[in-house]
């Protein structure tokens, strides 16, 4: 018996009736012979981790633009924290951990440079708007592998798309990703904001600390255990009203105290202006686009190609490219 077949058999014997079984996946857009060792979702994990878009996450902002210090989160460390929280919940609920991990690792592949500031900039200038979850789906379906995409399973792609926005995932694994993402970013953003002197422990409303915990690990533990307890034996992922309400209030506090804080966000306007100017430059000079984006230009239009190019940039690449395009170079005699 193949190793993959044995794993699929084990899933049928051990996973919850509400779990998405690898053997019952809706499959891929393009047929591929099955791997003898890995399930379809395990293959998707490997494809995402080996993708160029995943590697770029380490140089993309999570919340704080180019902070001075080694311990602030990046988009990659955020992704890894989400994956760990999601997998813990999936294991406790006997859901498919591999599907959960694949969707978690891929959920932010389409995020812009400079975090949500970059997302807002592209949303304002791109006809039809811009949403990072939709772009993440575009990355895995089209932009990776020179236009062939990663050919991921339907369930992983749906989990990536539905991790934010109005659409709810059909799988419980996709549903828990949405909450794991929120649990991760709310708490690690608190940690980073305290590290940067934006807020202090006493700033967090005391009743929220009493409910969720006074430390980073206590809050994550409370929120994770609550999702597990509230969702146990049910066909959907949920929270208790008490903990869910406290988490929403804590998220609201973060928007007021951190995400809209002039001290933390003072450089965002510069970053947004930089991305807008790069967008406008390449829209006016499409022949300067890298060759990877030329086919997109002819098939879907200049603005779509420019958007894909700018959205895929890392923070440092965008800054360097801006200097190359807009900053005069020193003139020397050859």
Write a concise keyword list for the protein shown above.
334 residues, mainly alpha
Put the structure in a nutshell.
This protein has 334 residues and is an all-alpha fold. It has 17 helices and no strands.
Structural overview:
The protein has 334 residues and is an all-alpha fold. It is built from 17 helices and no strands. The protein has helices at 3-14, 40-49, 52-56, 75-92, 97-106, 115-125, 132-143, 154-161, 172-195, 206-212, 216-231, 241-259, 262-265, 268-284, 294-300, 302-311, 315-326. It is flat.
SSE layout and pairings?
Layout: H1 3-14, H2 40-49, H3 52-56, H4 75-92, H5 97-106, H6 115-125, H7 132-143, H8 154-161, H9 172-195, H10 206-212, H11 216-231, H12 241-259, H13 262-265, H14 268-284, H15 294-300, H16 302-311, H17 315-326
Count helical runs. Answer: 17
Q: What is the chain-wise order of helices and strands?
A: HHHHHHHHHHHHHHHHH
Which structural class do you get from the secondary structure elements? Answer: mainly alpha
Please state roughly what percent of the residues sit in beta strands, choosing from under 5%, 5-15%, 15-25%, 25-35%, 35-45% or over 45%: under 5%
Helix proportion: 55-70%
Radius of gyration: 21 Å
């Amino acid at each position: 018996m193949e190793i993959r077949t044995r794993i699929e058999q084990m899933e049928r014997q051990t996973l919850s009736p509400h779990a998405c079984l690898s053997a019952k996946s809706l499959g891929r857009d393009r047929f591929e012979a099955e791997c003898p060792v890995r399930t379809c979702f395990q293959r998707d994990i490997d494809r995402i981790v080996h993708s160029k878009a995943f590697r770029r996450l380490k140089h993309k902002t999570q919340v704080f633009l180019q902070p001075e210090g080694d311990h602030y989160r990046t988009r990659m460390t955020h992704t890894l924290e989400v994956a760990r929280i999601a997998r813990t919940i999936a294991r406790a609920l006997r859901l498919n951990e591999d599907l959960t991990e694949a969707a978690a690792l891929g959920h932010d592949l389409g995020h812009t440079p400079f975090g949500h500031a970059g997302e807002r900039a592209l949303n304002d200038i791109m006809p039809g708007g811009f949403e990072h979850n939709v772009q993440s789906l575009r990355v895995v379906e089209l932009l990776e592998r020179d236009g062939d995409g990663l050919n991921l399973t339907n369930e992983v792609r749906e989990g990536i798309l539905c991790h934010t926005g109005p659409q709810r995932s059909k799988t419980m694994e996709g549903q828990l990703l949405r909450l794991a993402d929120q649990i991760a970013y709310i708490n690690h953003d608190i940690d980073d904001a305290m590290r940067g002197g934006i807020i202090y422990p006493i700033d967090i409303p005391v009743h929220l600390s009493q409910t969720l915990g006074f430390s980073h690990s206590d809050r994550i533990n409370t929120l994770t255990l609550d999702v597990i307890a509230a969702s146990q034996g049910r066909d959907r992922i949920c929270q208790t009203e008490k903990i869910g309400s406290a988490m929403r209030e804590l998220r609201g506090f973060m928007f007021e105290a951190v995400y809209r804080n002039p001290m933390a966000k003072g450089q965002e306007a510069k970053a947004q202006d930089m991305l807008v100017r790069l967008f406008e430059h390449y829209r006016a000079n499409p022949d300067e686009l890298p060759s990877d984006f030329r086919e997109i230009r002819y098939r879907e239009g200049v603005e779509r190609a420019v958007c894909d190019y700018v959205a895929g940039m890392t923070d440092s690449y965008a800054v360097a490219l801006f200097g190359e395009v807009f900053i005069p170079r020193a003139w020397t005699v050859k």
